[in-house]
Specification:
This protein has about 375 residues and is mainly beta. Helix content is about 10%, strand content about 40%. The chain has four helices and 24 strands. The strands form six sheets. Strands 8-13-15-21-18-19 form a six-stranded mixed β-sheet, with no helix packed on it. It is extended and about 100 Å long. The termini are far apart. InterPro entries: C-type_lectin-like/link_sf (IPR016186), CTDL_fold (IPR016187).
Length: about 375
């Protein structure tokens, strides 16, 4: 025999002083005239731990118990390779009294190389005092058995946060010399691909959208040097919408079931492009053969890169690069450069300064 014991406390704002809950179970065996009673006394945890179940919701300080000084809120587990987006939409707590902190793997999916994480700090004060980048967090699809992201609340801050689960391709960033990605649409989907290359490189992109098996489709190649205003607008696209952004220029294309494959090749104006792909459900489900295939390679700008390796720029007869992720003293930095086979760069002119500035801000 199994028995489930359920208990709910309805908060009315008044302090709750009891520290345990008692269950009384009366039972009798068939044919037995006696009634038996079992008493279960279970302690009420004094800490505050919430495990969120909805895939999309807004949680605020009004959802928390009134007394605990510290609360931990666990976001839903992500199945099917999905990620999680958390957006802080309200915040007001003196820094001397409390804060909001998001922990877990928080960063951008990067293809190749080592991921670069955006490390969340303790957020306090007022929301408008923090930059937009600190008000939101993206947690990519987790590793097997990884704990879900956690929001820690200290000192009962006034806050509100919106969260939602997103598709596995919500935020995929490529930073290597070349890369590729294949997407096949079988259900509604929203994806964003970003290609960020080091200063001194353009993106040579090859994009194939549509059904390569459609009769008469073939492999029609279109070479585009300058992107134009969007065509085949996204308002009526019941299929796969591809949107490409290169600086202020954009290009878009709507692909429906049965459309022949379209092959686009471009070389970007800048060292970064953004590709957004949206699949909207039609009355009939999209064909599994409806796909988007993307590949790219770095196209170095000779006057900037010269004969230097990928990620480096030419400075007179030298090759220079920026080392990120470490904070070192001058002496430590010189030792690190020597370990890498070089030395700290010297700025001798305004042109040198501009080059290093562009290298640091990567544009």
């Amino acid at each position: 025999m199994q028995v489930a014991l359920n208990w709910t406390l309805r908060e009315d704002g008044r302090p709750y002083g009891k520290t345990n809950v008692t269950f009384g179970l009366n039972y009798a065996s068939t044919g037995d005239p006696y009634v038996y009673r079992l008493i279960y006394t279970l302690p009420i945890l004094q800490d505050c731990q919430l495990f969120l179940l909805p895939e999309e919701a807004v949680i605020s300080d009004t959802d928390l118990p009134p007394t605990p000084h510290e609360c931990r809120v666990w976001f839903p587990r992500r199945e099917g390779g999905r990620g999680l987006v958390v957006q802080l939409i309200r915040l007001n707590v003196p820094c001397a009294r409390g804060y909001v902190h998001l922990s877990g793997w928080n960063g951008t999916q990067r293809n190749g190389g080592h991921p670069k994480s955006h490390k969340q700090t303790h957020l306090c004060g007022k929301l408008e005092e923090h930059p937009e980048s600190d008000r939101s967090a993206f947690f990519p699809s987790p590793a097997p058995r990884a704990a879900p992201p956690l929001m820690r609340l200290q000192g009962r801050p006034v806050f509100a946060a919106a969260y939602r689960l997103v598709d596995h391709c919500y935020n995929v960033t490529f930073t290597q010399r070349n890369g590729n990605f294949t997407l096949r649409s079988q259900a509604a989907l929203s994806c964003t691909f970003r290609i960020y290359l080091p200063y001194g490189n353009r993106v040579a992109l090859s994009l194939k959208v549509g059904d390569s098996r459609t009769a008469g489709g073939g492999d029609k190649l279109e070479t585009t040097t300058n992107l134009q205003s969007p065509v085949n607008g996204d308002h009526t696209c019941q299929g796969l919408l591809t949107k490409l952004q290169d600086g202020s220029s954009t290009w878009s294309h709507c692909t429906k079931v049965g459309d022949p494959e379209r092959h686009i090749e471009i070389v970007s104006r800048e060292n970064k492009i953004v590709l957004k792909v949206t699949v909207r459900s039609a009355p009939t489900a999209p064909s599994p053969s409806l796909s988007m295939r993307m590949s790219y390679r770095a196209e170095p700008i000779e006057r900037v890169v010269g004969v230097c390796e990928f990620g480096w720029a030419a400075l007179r007869q030298f090759c220079v690069t920026a080392i990120e992720g470490v904070r070192l003293s001058w002496q430590q930095a010189e030792m690190e450069c020597a370990r890498r086979g070089g030395h700290l760069a010297s700025i001798r002119s305004e042109q040198d300064q501009r080059l290093l500035d562009n290298l640091l801000i990567n544009r």
